[in-house]
Prior knowledge:
Elements: E1 7-12, H1 18-25, E2 35-36, H2 46-52, H3 79-98, E3 103-108, E4 111-113, H4 117-130, E5 137-139, E6 143-144, E7 149-150, E8 156-158, E9 162-163, E10 167-171, H5 172-180, H6 190-196, H7 204-209, E11 216-219, E12 224-226, H8 229-232
Parallel strand pairs: 1-2, 1-3, 5-11
Antiparallel strand pairs: 3-10, 4-12, 5-10, 6-9, 7-8, 8-11
Helix pairs in contact: 2-3, 3-5
Amino acid sequence: MIDPNLISTYVVNLPRRPDRRAWIERRLPIGTQAIYTSDLDVTIDGRDIARDGIADLDITLFDWQIDSDNPWWNRPLKYGEIGCTLAHLACWRHAEKSSSSPYILVLEDDALLVSELGSRLREGLSRLDAADEAFDLLYLGRYRLDPDTLSSVPGIVRPGYSHCSFAYLITREGLRTALSTDLAEAIIPIDEFLPALYTPHPRPDIRTRFPPRLAALAFEPPLATQRAKTEAGSDTEESEYVAS
């Protein structure tokens, strides 16, 4: 079990995907009382956003597409990317108002968790506290793009630029800082937003809009990986591009 007094757990899940909710429910530590975005009154499904448009969502999209050799940047945003970012934002907003836990754990519903996740996570937090190794964001898993550096705690690194937001812990102070960026006024993919908060983003325009402001760490080896897209699919990647 993940101690609810220490860690509040959120799971990103679409209302139309009870299959994925059931899958991860079976894999959460026994007794974990998670809050699912599918139970919150928020619009997070790229299909709904594509159908209804973004005019009523009270958001503004970042000028995303640029001339770049990076294929993820040299194309429009996808509606699923918007929805995924809004889902993470909904978790943070709910936690800010409804939780007093010092840590917020955010999982996507395709996260593959190690056995005994709760005890291993608490043990890692204890070691960080004993070493006085401060952090705002702690990846349980991610896709590393730039090299990491060592921290003072074995099994924990300082992450380089990384993608994927399927499993991370954010402190209450980190939560407030992330919310202070007004992400809803410049929506970008959550996988680009999180690394921008702790390392200078390789895109100058994102680096200017979202300069680093958090201290980040990561478990290495990770405590979570991600289901293969061939097995679980991807409601984000399989969504439509935003019309220009």
